[in-house]
Amino acid sequence: MGTQVPIQEGLFTWPSEDPRLIGSECNQCGAVLFPAQSGCPKCASDDTKHRELGKRGSLWTWTIQGFPPKAPPYAGDLENFEPFGVGYIELPGEVKVEARLTTADKDALKIGMEMDLQFLPLYVDDDGNEVITFAFSPAQEQ
Amino acid sequence: MASEDIWILGSNMTKFGKHPDEDLVDLASEAAMAALADAGISMAEVGIMGVGSLMNASAGIGQQLQKQIGQTGIPVYNVANACATGATALRVAIMAVKAGETDVGMAVGVEKLAGAGLLGQAGRGAASDTWEPSGRFGAVGSTEGRIGTGIMPGVFAQVGMEYGHKYGGTSFELFAKISEKNHAHSTLNPLAAYQKRFTLDEIMNDVMIAYPNTRPMCSGNCDGAAAMIVVSDAKLKTLSKRQQKHAVKISASVLTTDPYQEACQVLPDVNTLTRNAAKQAYEQAGIGPEDLDLVELHDCFATAELVHYDNLMLCEEGGAADFFESGAPWRDGSMPVNVSGGLQSKGHPIGATGIANIHEVAMHLRGDAGDRQIKGAKVGMAHVIGLGSACGVHILEKSAA
User: Fold this and answer.
1) 3 state SS of B204
2) Helix (H) or strand (E) holding A49
3) Which of A64, A69, A96 sits opposite B121 (nearest CB)?
4) Are residues A9 and A69 in the same domain?
5) According to DSSP H, which parts of chain A are helical?
6) In this structure, are A42 and A104 located in the same domain?
7) Is residue A40 located within the same domain as residue A76?
8) B143: contact with A, CB 8 A cutoff
9) pLDDT tens-place string over residues B54-64
């Protein structure tokens, strides 16, 4: 039995007590980006620092991927493919982040609704490790 | 400054669809030779070629094409710019003529895509040794289904959902009606890959690809090529009266990319760069949207067509749903949009698309559009967008000669 591993190092602070996405902030103009990068597309400076992003945002747009993507790069189970929700979450004052959504029910999703950051297992890799990624779910209290 | 005008002297597109017996270069040469014949000139007079084939961007298609139609030693620029590849090839030819390096330029776009499936993420062999995106950006930008979707139906579904939320008035049914229009238009276009008319029920009950786009609401992958000959004003003046009458003026030729925005770096914003391109094009041409007699816009998905009504300023800001409901974009409406059938039925062989939509407008301005002719058309616009992003907008005017 393998262990749990992040889908990519440097993308988020999981595992930790209060895991966050890791973005960057430009020291010159304040632009926030995700994932973190060393240059700034807004003001073209190369002076940025890491910034842990907020974990609640609002749903900016969404769809439901109804068809299995090509594999690779798609790593999910093709034979038992289930449509999945995807969207953009606007983290207030920071940046919009693309993410999987925890629901694929079109009646449960409404643009503007509050969404919370989650971490969940996505698939099991060739070494038997459970690969963890981030996703957003509708907030319990709307 | 009339002396700097650039003219389309010849133009051609192959039938779009399945061409299993024709190679990429066969299709490109068919279109290129037909465009030369249409222009009434020979390859010996052409001084530059811009050639685009996105899926074969590193194959030197321009040079392969020269071996079929004439190795005259002229410069070839093989270009790649996502779905704006064809328009970019044409821009290269136009820029060379404008710069005075030559009086005659050729642009060719070609693609073999029949059966390619969902686009946006290249399917790779699992054992491939070639470089693959990885690290932070690989995980976010290219890892399909892990954290998002880079597949085009999903991207453009979200574009339409966002517009609908911002301005209201949209619904699954409205988006399906846009597709109904384009499929109806295609029945008059013998060059379209699909000429089948669909009922609204058929469209809404087809397979859901990415809500709210069902299968017929997505552009069709197919094979095809398009080619165009452009000339300077000085060159046109030396040609026959027939050629002068036949020429179509390029009143505006614009290519834009994304300006920085408070968003995320993987989020495609198809709106801002399209609006910027349209603004620049109207300014270059010295006209407004009210002067247009027809528009070919990049309806890669039904949801995309709706937002581009607004981005190209065919309607008031936020008024795209009302604009469609008014009947304006039908071929008998006040602002016919995609009378070719659009990408949803004419098809979308990527490299060819950006030239083919300009070809369509040019044929109407010449009065050569056959059964689908928009009567008396004098001014038209063609729009194309490639994600990443690049947006091309051209405005054409009927020859005064």
Assistant:
1) helix
2) strand A48-52
3) A69
4) yes
5) none
6) no
7) no
8) yes
9) 999 889 999 99
